[in-house]
Amino acid sequence: MTRKEFLKMTSLAAGTAIGSTVGVRSPGAGPAAAPADATAPAGTRSDGAIHPDQSPAGRRSFPSGVTNAIVAFIAHTSFDRIPEKAIVEARRCLIDGFGVVLAGATVRGSAIVRHYIKGLERCAGSGANSTASVLGPERLRADAARAALANGASGHAMDFDDTQLSSSSDRVFGLLTHPTVPALAASLAVGERLDVPGRLFVEAFLTGFEVECKMAEAIDPDHYQRGFHSTGTIGTFAAAASAAKLMKLTPGQITHALGIAASTSSGIRVNFGSMTKPLHAGRAAENGIVAAELAARGFTAGDDPLDGEWGYFQVLGGGADVPRIVPALGQPFSIVSPGVSFKPYPCGSLGHPTMDAMLKLVTDHDVKADQIARIRVRAGSNILNPLRYRTAKTELEAKFCLPFMMASIALRRRAGIREFTDEFVSSTAVQALMARVDTIFDPQIEARGFDRMRSVVEVEATDGRTFTEASDERYRGGPEKPFTRTDLHEKFTDCASLVLPPDRIRRALELIESVETLKSIRELTQAMEA
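Below the sequence we write its predicted structure tokens.
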């Protein structure tokens, strides 16, 4: 192909692209450019051919205005204008979030991430840029992006972090994001590097949290159902928003940071049950910081990265319900309404109501594990598909394995961080009981929809008796049965005890509950360092 032919071909392609995005404006730009052939009838390309997406009979509309709305929200949000209720809920999410980071830092996957980071730090030389803390069982510092990678991966390592709630029943309940960890990891790393006061840390955390939740609500549910892991994909924007807020990026720089984030956003569900699932949260935090750092230095991206035919929402989601985000940002903050749910068990939240049902059944009827002949769990595809392991071989697989969840409750009357271990999962008693658990698709439960996590547990005893317990839709940690302050403190203490002594745990809780008053966020990280 000659250069002349190549230029003609790319010119035609450019004309098609311009023609298909008429009416979409870039932030701060003037009127949208006209098609290359302004006299052509609607639905035609500059070469006269009918474009399939623009034909009069099949005209499509694409998301519009989202980029501008998010940029404005990030640029103009300030601590003084954030409702007090959002600050209160932020403290609760931070107690839960810091706790699961500390506990998650003790698992093997997190140790491998730290080993990787230490190798990079050695290669870098003096460590002059090691300005952020990596929380966990050893004292370690790294640059902001790598610290966020480690803390983000640790925060999701046990699958014990909070879960975003949906504001309406047409979204699949429990399949949005784990909103705290990406925003927390990014805000902590950049905030520590810049030595910001606690109020700016909270401001950045809530900014990223809100962007993440509203984007997850707006994107077509097909995004998750086709296999994307929303915490990894949309969590990247949470981190970018938090970092951009702390770094005081201009609106133009924020736009480019969002564009860079859009091209680094990833995470697929095939990796559930492996070390890579928590890595999604770590990479989201890291990539969001990198996006903001590059944009601050003049690195460019598309001017309308979330909108139009080639924008994030259309490409990765197949569209978006724009009114869920424009003008819904901060109206109210998602952390306030519909809020989040805190996990009573360190595993996929879709199994929690079933686990509580099993716990109630064996407790009420005093059923011992050796009296159980068969366990049957009936549920819909919204629960059975994500919790996909028929038998778990490792603690990571166990987090997405209903038979293990039932076996742990039957054997120990609990399923906590000390049950989700490779040793317990692989034990003879657990393996034998998992083999007696059947998971059954129930069309009647399926027909009731996906707005709640519904299931029925049946236990057949060796003496012929059968016990049945339906899951309570008002599950522990959810909006109808929220964690109390005592519940949160007990969970934090249980998690942090894997790393910190009792006096340091008490001090950390005091600082988190007054975080907005701290002169420096470094006071908090120092209290939680090994």
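The chain has 23 helices and eight strands.
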